[in-house]
Amino acid sequence: MATTAKVKRWGKRMAIVIPSQFAKSHQIEVGTGIGLERIRIFRPKRRRHKLSELLREFKPQHHHPEWNVGKPAGKEIW
């Protein structure tokens, strides 16, 4: 099975996160140089969530009452 690594932001740069099992099996340690000539880039499809799926996960204990923040202090609409 092919191992994939994820590109993440690291400050103003990007970094490749290598899974630890892959690093161990290929003897990759911090500071090891890696050639980047033969890379296969793929973009995973983003999963679209349906509202019904998200609401199925909603539990009554997740519901919180409204906050009473007092009377309007300025030109608020409420």
Side-by-side strand order of the widest sheet:
1-2
The count of DSSP E runs of length 2 or more, i.e. the number of strands, is 2
| Termini gap | 58 Å
Approximate strand percentage: 5-15%
Helix content: 10-25%
Q: What gyration radius follows from the Cα positions, in whole Å?
A: 24 Å
What's the order of the H and E elements? EEHH
Backbone shape = elongated
| Biggest pleated sheet | 2 strands, antiparallel
What would the average pLDDT be, to the nearest integer?
85
Low-confidence stretches: none
Overall SS class: alpha+beta
Q: How many helical stretches?
A: 2
Q: What are the defining features of this structure?
A:
single chain; 78 residues; alpha+beta; 13% strand
Explain how this protein is built.
This protein has helices at residues 20-25, 51-56; strands at 6-10, 13-17. A hairpin with a 2-residue loop joins strand 1 (6-10) and strand 2. Strands 1-2 form a two-stranded antiparallel sheet. The chain has a domain at 1-37. It has 2 helices and 2 strands, in the order ββαα. The N and C termini lie far apart (58 Å). The protein is elongated, with a radius of gyration of 24 Å. The mean pLDDT is 85. With 78 residues, it is an alpha+beta fold.
